[in-house]
Specification:
CATH class: Alpha Beta
Order of helices and strands: EHEHEHEHEHHEHHHE
Number of helices: 9
Strand order of the largest sheet: 3-2-1-4-5-6-7
Radius of gyration: 17 Å
Structural class: alpha/beta
Strand content: 15-25%
Distance between the termini: 29 Å
Number of domains: 1
Largest sheet: 7 strands, parallel
CATH topology: Rossmann fold
Number of strands: 7
CATH superfamily: NAD(P)-binding Rossmann-like Domain
Shape: globular
Oligomer: single chain
């Protein structure tokens, strides 16, 4: 589905990002894995991709830094020989109820999760506009649609990504560029693995499909949106949440 497409995935070393990188390589893509902290994990993902016979490269980048994001986009374009698909998955959490949430924690989450997506889109769009084709996928969250206690910063950033997605879709459509978002619900990752069995059971009880998503569930949706099969879809928010937010 993605034969010879050049893909850049931020936050690509672990969890959902890793699953997307592997799935897209399996579908025929060459992948740039963008990470900020865990070089070892990013290098391991690249090794797995190269074992499939696809090209892979890891790049360290704080996407919240505009200039750094720009240099990384250019480096990816040069290394892979093009840039067809941008996936904005980089994100952090710094939870706290609104009356205890620190200003710095609010700002940092917005800077990484929302401004980081703006930064990479801003730079990647120049390449895609020149080529008159491209696909942008933003990984948002149902938290940005329904809110979530203790995550005012995270929910605000993810809601902002939805608005960003729809606006970018309208602005770039005439250049042959699509922009969509995926909104996961609860996903089984390293973060949720640390939760108690009681908390996990409570999560399962509120999800109609009675389980958390696997990272591969999100990755499968991303592969579809990155493929030519989704070439007439833009400005959409695809919920992959097991029916959590209906």
């Amino acid at each position: 589905m993605l034969e010879n497409k050049k893909v850049m995935i931020t936050g690509g070393s672990r969890g959902i990002g890793r699953a997307m990188a592997i799935a897209m390589a399996q579908a025929g893509a060459d992948v740039a894995v963008i990470y900020n902290g865990n070089k070892e994990a990013a290098d391991k993902v690249c090794e797995e991709i190269r074992a499939m016979g696809r090209q892979a490269a890891a790049f360290k980048c704080d996407v919240g830094n505009f200039e750094e994001a720009g240099k990384t986009v250019q480096a990816v374009n040069k290394e892979l020989g093009g840039l067809d698909v941008l996936v904005n998955n980089a994100g952090i959490t710094k939870d706290g109820l609104i009356f205890t949430l620190k200003e710095d924690d609010f700002d940092r989450v917005i800077e990484t999760n929302l401004k980081g997506a703006f930064n990479t889109i801003k730079h990647a769009a120049k390449i895609m506009m020149k080529n008159r084709k491209g696909t942008i996928i933003n990984i948002t969250s149902v938290s940005g649609m329904m809110g979530n206690p203790g995550q005012a910063n995270y929910a605000a950033a993810k809601a902002g990504m939805i608005g960003l997605t729809k606006t970018v879709a309208k602005e770039l459509a005439a250049r042959g560029i699509t922009c969509n978002a995926i909104a996961p619900g609860f996903v089984a990752t390293e973060m949720t693995d640390k939760l108690s069995d009681e908390v996990k059971d409570s999560i399962d009880s509120v999800v109609p499909l009675k389980r958390m998503a696997q990272p591969e569930d999100i990755a499968n949706a991303a592969v579809f949106l990155a493929s030519d099969k989704a070439s007439y879809i833009t400005g959409e928010v695809l919920k992959v949440d097991g029916g959590l937010y209906i």
